[in-house]
Amino acid sequence: MKDLTDEEKELLSKLGQRIKELRIKKGYTNYEHFAYEHGISRTQYGSYETGENLKFLTLVKVLKGLDVSLSEFFSENF
């Protein structure tokens, strides 16, 4: 994978923060429980919340587990 720009790193960080915020709002205080219940590798999911790059289809899977649409997810300022 290519080196990321500071702007790309910042966007990934915001994406991870948003995912974590929604997970907690949904009642999952532990990211591992959420990942397990939705068929996502716990290690991989944990890296998403810390700003690692993730694939679009994986984001869709996470949002489905959170009962959040793409438009709702991106309604927050990025």
From TrEMBL:
Q: Which Pfam families match?
A: HTH_3
Cite the Gene3D superfamilies for this sequence: lambda repressor-like DNA-binding domains
SUPFAM superfamilies found in the cross-reference section:
lambda repressor-like DNA-binding domains
Q: Where is the HTH cro/C1-type domain?
A: 19-73
PROSITE patterns in the cross-refs: HTH_CROC1
* Descriptive protein name: Helix-turn-helix transcriptional regulator
Q: Which organism is it from?
A: Pontibacter anaerobius
